[in-house]
Amino acid sequence: MDGGNGKRRRKTASSTREQILRVSTDLFGRYGYDRVSIRQIAAESGANLGAVTYHFGGKEELYAQTIEALTADIERFLGPLLDRLNERTAEAGGDRDALREIAGGFIRDWARQTLDNAEVQARMPILARELISPTGAFDRIFIGFYLRLNEGLETLVSAAADAPVDGVDLKVRVHALSSLMLGFISNEKVFWRFLGWDGYSPERIETLLPALSEAFVAAAGLADRAPSAGA
Q1: Are 142 and 178 in contact (CB under 8 A)?
Q2: In 2, 118, 151, 157, which residue has its Cα 20 to 30 A from 28's Cα atom?
């Protein structure tokens, strides 16, 4: 019987496939689809060309599966945060003090889990390239990432506004929130230059959290309302 050998072969094949996907994510993100070859991906992943074509066929299918794996990874990371945000928002029942605490807690959790996360950083270049020059894979990224994020944030913004989840005003507020979040990753080098930093660290992230939380809460429409004149 070769049950043990069969398991090892499957594990080796899975490891090879995962390594190819890691390398393709990096190379497609750095150079774009047109400037990356299957041969280059094979060389940098330590796999032979036949292994790449065995697992993925050609470059088009490899790119499609790279995007599929990327969005699945993002969902595993982002999904629980958004699900918890939606659950807690529903439990708050419109209580603005509770919603402020929920919004602040969400953005703090997101920052701690995202900003100094090498896995997240590795995935941002390919997302940025799809935003600048969309390919046929953009729909998958839009549905698996951007739409998922925005739909999660809509629940919070709708509760803050005490309004139904529709309308341009609501979409603008939600987009402002998601842009605020993603800007701390996509424009991080600009931000670091302003601060004289060479990168994020857990300690530096903690220094950002009070101001980041305040900005996020305000963008969600949950800032404390100033007293009216004569009050």
Answers
A1: no
A2: 151
- pLDDT digits over 161-198, tens only? 876 667 888 889 999 999 999 999 888 999 999 999 99
Q: Residue 224 has what DSSP assignment?
A: P
pTM of the model: 0.84
Asked if 116 and 207 count as a contact pair (C-beta separation under 8 A), the reply is: no
- Asked if 158 contacts 165 with a C-beta cutoff of 8 angstroms, the reply is yes
Q: b/e for 165-196, b at 16 or more Cβ within 10 A? A: eeeeebeebbebbbebbbebbeebeeeeeeee
For residue 163, give the 3-state DSSP assignment: coil
Largest Cα separation within the chain, whole Å, is: 87
Distance CA 119, CA 149 (A): 18
